[in-house]
Write a structure and sequence with these properties.
heterodimer; A: about 190 residues; alpha+beta; Beta Polymerase, domain 2; five-stranded mixed β-sheet; 5 strands; B: about 375 residues; Cytochrome-c3 Hydrogenase, chain B; three-stranded antiparallel β-sheet; 14 helices
Chain lengths: ~190, ~375
């Protein structure tokens, strides 16, 4: 693990190295280097399993942190590469040529964070949300509570706790009214 | 070299040769709620696109608004058949960030819980696989048998489906008196039902003729598509996180990783049958080696005002369907800044299914889908 970081450090500008566990290291690479770093790890250090691509929104620094998690099956080591990109018009190089599975992650990031990956096939197709018009929902400035209050109307509560009465009123309003009046009349006559 | 995934289709849709149909989101063959947009020529699939989004509940976003302990009712709902993996991983990520070491007995109880969940989910998966090929009897047996395991869960945790037994710092409480004997009885029953399933399903002409050679995943596809778990092991990749990167107490258990070679639907199902027997074996070992004394929980700070130190971590575990992982980022406040769930069937269902279903018949696509152990809630989160 240590030798790998040293070898990587001689070739690329990496910083913030944090050896979290014995076989897990977090490091930050520069945006322009990212494709070369990943390709180097894949081809020469046998990090050939892409576990996932994730994103963290650092709204106070006006940055997105993209996280690439690579696994080496031979020594069970995880290398996690962080890349910071601008929050305005975020764009990133696509790595879909290296791993076919990366396409799904990139498509999801495009939808949930609005990060564009030019060249990735079907990246503009809707993944989960169809017809979404406001800002991408996983960004920190998206207010879930405000959105749901504006979009969905509140359901009115029940006037009665008796389920039979409730369902009668809901499904057969006229009949319920007639039944109620007959019952009322019957009670009055029987007095 | 020909690219593995060529998505430039040169099909002339206006030629009148093709029919486009939608299977799902509500279809008895589809697992969960997800739909397949299938382009057919006769009965042969020419193109398949998967569509998710029918189960999206925004869990990752909701977790950012909740305190750590309040996320527990959410994380277990990410995967319905196997919620314990989510609970374990969320607790493990919190413990990792906060630097908490859990007691020895809690580790064993957690492993027992995880193996029981794997047992239930894998048996139900076997039944689903049989049902997709028309053997409804096996499906009924397996669901009925899973109910016995759910009874055990009810006894252990108080809940049948979403248990919330594991918490940061250990597990909730001790198992009730006599629990181990009752678990052993269910294990004996499990072996018996696997014997029956073996006879009815794996020697069945209909099942064999449809499943053998269907949806073959070559070994070279495992890494480009990020395939893990039983799906990868059935294609001959010997990798199991329980063995290769052990968590909890799996390094103290004695077992061999199951590997197949065929990589088709039959091979994957056969491997899952062996996984059930492996789980039974592991549960017996756990019952035998588990320490009987000691606390099950360590003290944690006031959970409603618990500030987790800033940092980030990734924890992983082997679920019944593949590698499950949680990537958690904390900024030192009471709320998580980001929780990313790496679902086991995320790439299986989206990328791989689209690729594999080309060239097979419309009737076989559901058997293929079940064999990839698709679970839509963990794709959408």
């Amino acid at each position: 693990m240590k030798e790998m970081i040293e070898r990587l450090g001689t070739k690329f500008n990496i910083k913030d190295i944090n050896e979290h566990k014995d076989n897990q290291v977090f490091l930050t690479a520069e945006k322009k280097d990212l494709e070369s770093v990943i390709l180097y790890l894949k081809e020469f250090e046998k990090y050939d399993h892409l576990t996932m691509i994730s994103c963290v929104d650092y709204i106070e620094d006006n940055k997105f942190q993209l996280t690439y998690l690579l696994r080496n099956y031979n020594n069970n080591a995880d290398t996690i590469i962080r890349v910071f990109i601008d929050r305005e018009n975020p764009t990133m190089t696509s790595i879909n040529e290296l791993w076919a599975g990366a396409r799904v992650y990139e498509r999801e990031l495009k939808e949930m964070f609005g990060i564009d990956f030019p060249g990735c096939p079907r990246v503009d197709d809707a993944f989960v949300l169809e017809g979404w018009e406001t800002i991408p929902p996983m960004r920190k400035d998206f207010d879930t509570k405000k959105y749901s209050e504006e979009t969905f109307f509140p359901r009115e509560g029940r006037s009665t706790l008796d389920p039979t009465e409730q369902m009668e009123k809901k499904m057969y309003p006229v009949e319920a009214e007639v039944k109620k009046s007959i019952t009322k009349e019957f009670r009055e006559n029987s007095k | 070299m020909e690219p593995i995934w060529n998505d430039k289709s040169d099909l002339d849709l206006k030629s009148g040769k093709y029919v486009k149909i939608w299977q799902g989101p509500q279809h008895p063959g589809v697992t969960g709620n997800m739909s397949l947009e299938i382009l057919l020529e006769g009965d042969e699939i020419m193109e398949c696109k998967t569509h998710v989004g029918y189960l999206h509940r925004g869990f990752e976003k909701l977790m950012e608004r909740r305190k750590y302990i309040k996320c527990f009712p959410i994380v277990c709902r990410i995967c319905v058949p196997e919620p314990d993996t989510n609970e374990y991983l969320f607790s493990a990520a919190v413990e990792d960030l906060a630097g908490i070491e859990i007691p020895e007995r809690a580790k064993w109880l957690r492993a027992m819980n995880l193996e029981m969940a794997r047992l239930g989910s894998t048996i139900m998966g076997l039944g689903g696989q049989a049902g997709a090929f028309g053997l409804g009897t096996v499906g009924q047996w397996s669901v009925a048998h899973r109910d016995l395991i759910l009874d055990l869960f009810e006894e252990l945790t108080g809940a049948r489906i979403y248990h919330m037994y594991m918490l940061p710092g250990g597990v909730r409480h001790e198992p009730p008196a006599g629990f181990e004997d009752r678990l052993e009885k269910i294990l004996v029953k499990t072996e018996k039902i696997i014997y029956d399933i073996d006879k009815v399903m794996f020697n069945n002409y209909v099942f064999k003729s449809r499943a053998v050679g269907l949806g073959v995943i070559p070994k070279e596809w495992i890494k480009p598509f990020g395939i893990t778990g039983t799906t990868a092991r059935a294609s001959g990749v010997k990798y199991d996180i329980r063995k290769d990167d052990p968590y909890l107490i799996y390094d103290q258990l004695d077992f061999e990783v199951n590997v197949g070679s065929a990589g088709d639907v039959y091979g994957r199902t056969e491997l899952r049958k062996r996984e059930v027997l492996l789980s039974v074996d592991l549960l017996r070992q756990i019952l035998k080696k588990m320490p009987r004394t000691g606390s099950v929980r360590t003290r944690i700070p006031d959970i409603l005002h618990w500030k987790i130190p800033a940092g980030e971590t990734y924890v992983k575990a082997e679920s019944g369907r593949g590698e499950y992982g949680y990537y958690m980022v904390s900024d030192g406040s009471e709320y998580p800044r980001r929780v990313h769930v790496r679902g086991a069937s995320y790439t299986h269902a989206m990328a791989l299914l689209e690729k594999l279903s080309v060239g097979i018949t419309n009737a076989d696509v559901f058997g293929l889908m079940v064999s990839l152990q698709t679970c839509p809630p963990e794709i959408e989160r």
